[in-house]
Design brief:
Oligomer: single chain
Largest sheet: 10 strands, mixed
Number of helices: 18
Structural class: alpha/beta
Strand order of the largest sheet: 11-10-9-8-7-6-12-13-14-15
Distance between the termini: 10 Å
Helix content: 25-40%
Shape: globular
């Protein structure tokens, strides 16, 4: 569930308007889009269906799961009631007018029904028209809102929360070293000997301290250990944890820690020591059963790595207080072997202790002798193909009964456009995104010199969401305008439109239903939270 800051209810800001005069002009201009609707009546109308509602039919029943993407809530309702909650317009009042909805076959062409969407901005439904007694519950879940204006304001507050989190997020890559030679590694070509020395560590901690002094609205610090492989230098990791945690405690700030590791150097003693210091999440990659994983992710001498990683994960199962995510980088080379990996995890007793994270292999690496054919010489797959790949993998995860996040894919919403978010590499340079670390031209400063103008320039990529707002897309809370790195790969422009709508169409009917465990729900009108 996404956590948002409460909006200022006294403010009536219209998307795209910077002053009260502009807001008035924006309202006036909209009268041409809302056929036969007086704007005063529009603002004072009874509750309407939230535009962040999306509908998911439940297989084998007449029930519908209504999911509100803004609140992260769901209600299982009859199909008749669901019709009154139908919202989530993907391209409202544009060239193709359609309801954002789900089909039994997500790969089928989208039907267009102009009769349903002719007055799409004026398609709010009166709460009094809803059959049954649950209007109050639906309003509490955010599926009914006071007016279309409130939904517009919620979208703006949403973006404010996405762009300006009150947490200083530090992804710390203090070493480029790694024991593995992954075939698709996006960091190929780096100098494996680069790492922080005591002087650079001092500068890094000083940068964090100064940043906190200059940004007094920050309420917490999240420290993510990254690499290279962070556990090739455990002493440095431990020292950074102590120093950054101390800065947080000095200022009464929340502190939490995550670790992204290849898993080869994991130990129960290490994790038991770090959990009380804030470790909340550990992430390891296994790309399939041993035959596939060892080919894609071998050691530098070609030695297998699967068995060692699995054994290390099994040692952690008795430790409480943190979560384990197992990432699978999906492409056509391994997509149909997810079940084989999950069977092994179940046999190892890990099913109840891990969640499965599905991500697409980015084909931005240099060709390698051991690289999967799926990522050599191929452009980035289009959104429908990405959706189909993720769906094939997700179906296996669901069938095996493993937990998985509801929104598969990288960084949802994108870290690239978030204030107070920095990746610090092994040279002390600052970046907006881990995938940009090997391009010095994309550095936004350094821990020695501070944050430069390039940071603000790249943050302008936030404006990619203007298309999402214009289309009133219900997926905005989930994707935040799409991955900026992927937009750059496709077009060379970080601020270009990169809409994952067709990807969501493929995966969300599966992942959301799985999240809310509909198989165990038999009665209608059940409210799920």
């Amino acid at each position: 569930m996404f956590v948002r800051e409460p909006g200022n209810k006294s403010s009536r800001h219209i998307p795209g308007a910077n002053t009260q005069t502009e807001a008035g002009q924006a309202i006036s201009g909209r009268q041409t889009q809302i056929k036969g609707t007086d704007i005063t009546a529009w603002l004072k109308a009874p509750p309407v269906a939230s535009r962040f509602n999306i509908l998911i039919p439940v297989d084998g029943t007449e029930d519908v799961l209504v999911f509100n993407t803004l609140k992260g809530t769901a209600a299982l309702v009859s199909s008749d009631r669901a019709a009154f909650l139908k919202s989530g317009l993907s391209e409202a009042c544009g060239e193709r007018k359609m309801w954002r909805h789900y089909r039994e076959n997500a790969s089928a062409p989208l039907p267009v029904n102009d009769a349903d969407t002719d007055n799409c901005l004026d398609a709010g439904l009166l709460a009094g028209d809803l059959p049954g007694p649950n209007e109050g519950a639906l309003a509490k879940l955010g599926m009914l809102v006071e007016s279309r204006f409130d939904d517009e304001r919620a979208a703006q507050n949403l973006l404010t929360g996405l762009w300006h989190p009150k947490t200083l997020k530090l992804t710390l890559s203090y070493t480029a070293a790694c024991q593995m030679d992954c075939s698709y590694c996006f960091q190929q070509g780096r100098d494996l000997l680069r790492h922080h020395d005591p002087s650079l560590m001092h500068s890094t901690v000083a940068f964090v301290e100064q940043y906190l002094d200059e940004h007094t609205d920050i309420a917490g610090i999240h420290l993510g250990l990254f690499g290279g492989e962070p556990l090739t230098n455990i002493d440095m990791a431990a020292e950074y944890i102590e120093k950054i945690r101390h800065l947080a405690l000095q200022r009464s700030l929340a502190f939490n820690l995550s670790l992204t590791t290849n898993g080869l150097n994991l130990s129960a003693d290490l994790i038991s020591n770090w959990v009380p210091k804030g470790l909340g999440y550990l992430r390891v990659t296994l790309d399939g059963p041993p035959k596939i994983h060892n080919r894609r992710r071998p050691g530098h001498g070609g030695q297998p790595t699967f068995e060692k990683i699995l054994a290390n994960l099994k040692m952690l199962t008795g430790i409480k207080g943190f979560g384990i995510g197992i990432s699978i980088n999906i492409d056509s080379d391994n997509v149909d072997h997810v079940k084989d990996l999950l069977d092994l995890l179940s046999s190892a007793g890990l099913k109840e202790d891990v969640e499965i994270i599905l991500e697409l292999t980015l084909p931005s690496c240099s060709p390698r002798a051991n690289a999967p054919a799926a990522v050599v010489g191929r452009p980035l797959p289009d959104m429908p193909e990405q959706g189909r790949l993720l769906s094939r993998a997700l179906d296996q995860v669901i069938a095996a009964g493993f937990a998985t996040p509801p929104f598969p894919g990288l960084c949802t919403p994108c870290n690239f456009v978030q204030s107070n978010n920095f990746v610090i590499d092994w040279s002390g340079n600052l970046f907006r995104c881990t995938f940009t670390m090997l391009d010095p031209a994309l550095a936004v400063g350094s821990v020695v010199e501070g944050v430069g103008a390039k940071n603000e320039e790249l943050l302008q990529a936030r404006h990619a969401t203007s298309a999402c707002l214009e289309r009133q897309c219900a997926y905005l809370p989930l994707c935040g305008g799409g991955c900026r790195f992927e937009a750059g790969l496709r077009t060379g422009d970080w601020a270009a439109e990169n809409c994952p709508l067709l990807l969501w169409d493929e995966v969300l009917p599966r992942s959301i239903a799985h999240l809310f465990a509909l198989k165990s729900v038999s009665s209608r009108e059940t409210i799920l939270q």
